[in-house]
Amino acid sequence: MISPMQFVRRFSGRVGFAVGLGVLSLSMALPTQAFAATTNVDAQKCGAKDVKCVITFGDQRITERLTDLSALDTKVQTLQQKKHIGEDEAEALKNDVSTNKNGLNTLKSKLDAESDAQAARQDVKNIYEQFRIYAVVLPRDEHRLHLDVEKTLNDKLTDMKTKIETRIDKAPADKKDQLNSLYNDYKAQLTAVAPLIDGAKAILPNMTPANFNTNRSAYEGRLNTLKSDEKTIQSDLQKAASDLKQINQALKKK
């Protein structure tokens, strides 16, 4: 399957690209993992004073979260290596993963040292309420990663304007109306995307465990706005890619 960046590179090189928009759409999408969090209620199955049972339960929940954070870190590194995201964007995500892993490991050390079941239960409660790995951190960072990929693609498509203009200038006169119409739409889509990405990214700092815990309705409102912006961004980029494909096809026709 061809990636968005390969799609762009093929146009910018001497060899024309031959790829359907549907393939581009599939390769653009970053599937969000369905994170299945075990509820804190399960810890109540332990006896009232069975501290070992509570610790075992808590350790399992921490391990699950550490595993999924590591999976996200691997995904970030892979996309960075493929140049789908920049170094700064990758570093920010990796730092967030590291911060949460360190916090969970610190909590695990505290939990493992508990001798009182009630104190151990409070530590288990903190796995959920203090960190919110599944409710907040992983979904938020997946959104951030998605936006970073879209920003990289938008930047690359924007950088191609001069090359496209040069090719249109050299095109036969009877094709220029069609080409200019497509190119104007191409530019309009990219112009619309940039502020949407900036606006969506501005929402992310507010998506914190504290905000999730204290004002759920406001948190959900921001999340819905973020999802709506992402949907529009992807639609605009797909339209720009479609314009680019049609421009290339028109230029290839004799």
Uncertain segments: 11-37
**Alpha-carbon Rg, integer:** 24 Å
Give the oligomeric state of the chains in this entry, treating copies of one chain as homo and distinct chains as hetero: single chain
Average pLDDT level? 87
Global geometry: elongated
Q: What percentage of residues falls in helices of 4 or more residues?
A: over 70%
Considering the chains and any ligands shown, give keywords for the structure.
2 domains, elongated, mainly alpha
Would you give an account of this structure?
With 254 residues, the protein is mainly alpha-helical. It folds into two domains: 1-30 and 139-254; 33-131. 78% of the residues lie in helices and 0% in strands. It has ten helices and no strands. The protein has helices spanning 4-12, 21-28, 51-81, 87-112, 117-131, 133-159, 161-169, 173-203, 209-214, 216-252. α4 (87-112) packs antiparallel against α5 (117-131). The chain is elongated and about 85 Å long. It starts with a helix and ends with a helix. Residues 11-37 have low confidence and may be disordered. Keywords: Signal. Residues 1-36 form the signal peptide.
How is this structure best summarized?
Keywords: Signal. The chain is an all-alpha fold and about 250 residues long. Helices cover about 80% and strands about 0% of the residues.
Helix-strand blueprint:
Layout: H1 4-12, H2 21-28, H3 51-81, H4 87-112, H5 117-131, H6 133-159, H7 161-169, H8 173-203, H9 209-214, H10 216-252
Helix pairs in contact: 2-10, 3-4, 3-5, 3-6, 4-5, 4-6, 6-8, 6-10, 7-8, 8-10
Keywords: Signal
Signal peptide: 1-36
